[in-house]
Amino acid sequence: MGEEDPQQDEEVQQVLDAIRALGADDQPPAERARRLTQLLDAWPDAHSRVRAMRQKAMQDMQDDGMSLRKISAETGISFGRVREIIQGVTKRPKAEKPQESQEPPA
Length: 106
Known about the structure:
Elements: H1 10-22, H2 29-63, H3 68-75, H4 79-87
Helix pairs in contact: 2-4, 3-4
């Protein structure tokens, strides 16, 4: 088993340990690559399901009368992000990088 993070719940740690084990060097490289490819192929759907489950949990908290600030405090997620999650915002706009001058130096 990998290094355990005392901040992680047991189930979360088990998932992270299982992912770490898939890439462990004690398996032949071809087997690791095959197994990791299977995980990556399933990842987008699994990620979407996890995101939807998190949104529902927060919606349930709000439906039970909890304020966004209280949800933020209970989950350790910022107030603004809690609001976005409940609203279904999944991708935040990226900050634009300043344009570098296209002119050649003088």
